[in-house]
């Protein structure tokens, strides 16, 4: 599937995903459902075009970045599609990060406007000489009475920048992954069509928020491709919230991460009320889905979970299981429209059954990392993109995930950089050295754990792990905090002084 064979040279993704439905008579269909409101495609189109007018009056021109630190809801959908409609570059930002991370992201993408939710600490301070800060309430007020831009949707090129998503780098520093106007369309025509088989009657609900590449597709563009609807909830996706939303809004497509399924299973076993009767398909991505979670979920709900791997760089899922044919423990087979290779260190294809580095080719892959030319060159190699994952294939061709080629941890489907957590820990005066690793919990899902050695022999180790966890939480997003901190006399090291993480993992 190549955009250039199917899309006109002038293509605006917001026009495709929103404006087109109104032009073709589907304006009264429901686009977004929340506890508080329902938004039709007609309303979404009008609000998006009002946002275009707001942006233009603030001097936003094509290619300018417009960032959002917003919770999932109608305003985020309006701002995302409105910015793309204007020909600007939409930058949804992870709301779970700390103010310092938000500052780093805003400094990097240098937006003309940043729209912030007042409940997110530090949002108001994100402005600068070239960056205006608008609060969610201000924008909502302006949208109520504002003029509708005519013609509204900018005639952008199909290969123009459309949105950035920030993904964690190995040191924890966020990397701006740059996507083009045609990328979302490609994901819909590949994964959306062949694996989800999404129709206008579907209703999507995603545990992963819109600021993640996974959530952006699940909640915004897959349903909008076919004029289907999506449920947006702003709360933390605890089992209680998810059960309640599913019961109330009756989604047909449910998107989770393995940890969310494991947490829901634990809640079910503890007697929680749930009803997944409306759901016709469950998806899992973000980290490998343990076979035991898949099987227990099937026992409790009668539903299969389709595990698939996606990445921010590839935009969405490119390797997946198929409905009715899930292979537990495997990520499945390539999604139509993507080519996969497993290669050795010299770039040669490995033999069937051997471990290799996964390379992917497809037309939704990122154009570059913003302001990161060297990382771009290392990751994007011509038409192929390096995912950083180790995979092997069995005799029948099924792909099996076998870890990362870096030390990055996926916990609850979200990146945790051991380097970043270690850097926060060593800032504590009592800590001499530390190492952070991912270790599997009882469900077979990785969580970060830390090992530290102490600076002074007289440091009081009692209560120190709790104090260190609190110390990390002050500095980093809560999900990055090690679940346990173990104090050691020394860290296991090689003769050359490299920490032997595999020995720590074995503990
Ligand atoms: C890991 C998996 C095994 C793998 C994502 C769009 O997760 C997404 O994007 P990120 O950039 O992370 C990508 C990395 O996460 N991973 C994701 N899914 C799986 N490993 N099995 C899986 N099923 O290391 C990959 O390189 O945060 C983005 C759509 C779906 C997504 N999962």
Q: What portion of residues belong to β-strands?
A: 15-25%
Largest sheet, in brief, is: 9 strands, mixed
Backbone CA Rg? 23 Å
The end-to-end span amounts to 46 Å
Q: Please, what is the CATH homologous superfamily of the largest domain? A: ANL, N-terminal domain
Under CATH, the topology of the largest domain can be stated as: Rossmann fold
Major sheet: order of its strands?
2-1-10-9-11-12-13-14-15
In helices, the fraction of residues equals 25-40%
Tell me the count of domains. Answer: 3
Annotation field: number of helices: 15
User: In CATH's first tier, which class of the largest domain applies?
Assistant: Alpha Beta
CATH architecture of the largest domain: 3-Layer(aba) Sandwich
Describe this structure in words.
This protein is α/β, with parallel strands linked by helices and 507 residues long. The chain has 3 domains: 6-181, Rossmann fold (3-Layer(aba) Sandwich), CATH 3.40.50; 203-404, Rossmann fold; 408-506, GMP Synthetase, Chain A, domain 3. The chain is 32% helix and 25% strand. The protein contains 15 helices and 26 strands. It has a 9-stranded mixed beta sheet with strand order 2-1-10-9-11-12-13-14-15, sandwiched between helices. Strands 16, 17, 19, 20 and 21 form a 5-stranded antiparallel beta sheet that branches. It has a 4-stranded parallel beta sheet with strand order 4-3-5-6, sandwiched between helices. The longest helix is centred in the first third of the chain and has 17 residues, at 41-57. The mean pLDDT is 95. The structure holds 5'-O-[(S)-[(2-aminobenzoyl)oxy](hydroxy)phosphoryl]adenosine. 5'-O-[(S)-[(2-aminobenzoyl)oxy](hydroxy)phosphoryl]adenosine is lined by residues 167, 213-214, 285-288, 307-312, 316-317, 331, 387-389, 401, 404, 410, 415.
């Amino acid at each position: 599937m190549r955009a250039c064979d199917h899309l006109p040279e002038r293509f605006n993704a917001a026009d495709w995903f929103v404006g087109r439905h109104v032009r073709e008579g589907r304006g009264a269909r429901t686009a977004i459902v929340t506890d508080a409101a329902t938004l039709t495609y007609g309303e979404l189109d009008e609000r998006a075009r009002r946002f275009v007018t707001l942006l233009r009056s603030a001097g936003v021109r094509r290619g300018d970045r417009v960032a959002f630190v917003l919770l999932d809801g109608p305003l985020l959908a309006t701002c995302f599609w409105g910015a793309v409609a204007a020909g600007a570059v939409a930058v949804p930002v992870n709301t779970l990060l700390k103010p310092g991370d938000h500052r780093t992201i805003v400094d990097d993408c240098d937006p003309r406007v940043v729209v912030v939710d007042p409940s997110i600490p530090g949002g108001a301070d994100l402005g600068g000489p070239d960056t205006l800060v608008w609060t969610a309430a201000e924008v909502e007020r302006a949208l109520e009475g504002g003029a509708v831009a005519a013609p509204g949707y900018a005639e952008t090129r199909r290969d123009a920048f459309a949105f950035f998503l920030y993904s964690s780098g190995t040191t924890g520093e966020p990397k701006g992954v740059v996507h083009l106007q045609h990328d979302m369309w490609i994901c819909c025509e590949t994964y959306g069509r062949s694996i989800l088989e999404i129709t206008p009657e579907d209703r999507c609900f995603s545990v992963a928020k819109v600021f993640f590449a996974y959530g952006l597709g699940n909640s915004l563009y897959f349903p909008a491709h076919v004029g289907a609807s999506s449920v947006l909830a702003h709360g933390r996706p605890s089992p209680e919230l998810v059960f309640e939303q599913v019961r109330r809004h009756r989604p047909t497509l449910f998107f989770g991460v393995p940890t969310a399924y494991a947490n829901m299973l634990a809640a079910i076993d503890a007697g929680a009320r749930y009803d997944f009767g409306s759901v016709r398909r469950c998806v899992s991505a973000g980290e490998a889905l343990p076979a035991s979670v898949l099987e227990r979920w099937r026992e409790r709900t009668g539903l299969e979970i389709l595990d698939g791997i996606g990445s921010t760089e590839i935009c969405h899922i490119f390797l997946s299981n198929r409905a009715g044919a899930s292979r537990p423990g495997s990520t499945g087979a390539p999604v139509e429209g993507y080519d996969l290779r497993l290669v050795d260190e010299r770039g040669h294809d490995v033999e069937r059954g051997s471990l290799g580095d996964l390379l992917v080719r497809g037309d939704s892959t990122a154009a570059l990392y913003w302001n990161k030319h060297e990382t771009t060159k290392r990751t994007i190699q011509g038409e192929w993109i390096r995912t950083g994952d180790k995979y092997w294939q069995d005799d029948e061709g099924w792909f099996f995930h076998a870890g990362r080629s870096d030390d990055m941890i996926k916990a609850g489907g979200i990146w945790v950089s051991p380097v970043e957590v270690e850097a926060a820990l060593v800032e504590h005066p009592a800590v001499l050295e530390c190492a952070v690793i991912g270790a599997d919990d009882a469900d077979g899902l990785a969580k970060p754990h830390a090992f530290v050695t102490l600076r002074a022999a007289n440091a009081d180790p009692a209560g120190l792990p709790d104090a260190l966890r609190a110390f990390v939480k002050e500095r980093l997003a809560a999900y990055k905090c090690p679940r346990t901190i173990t104090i050691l006399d020394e860290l296991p090291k090689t003769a050359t002084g490299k920490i032997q993480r595999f020995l720590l993992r074995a503990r």
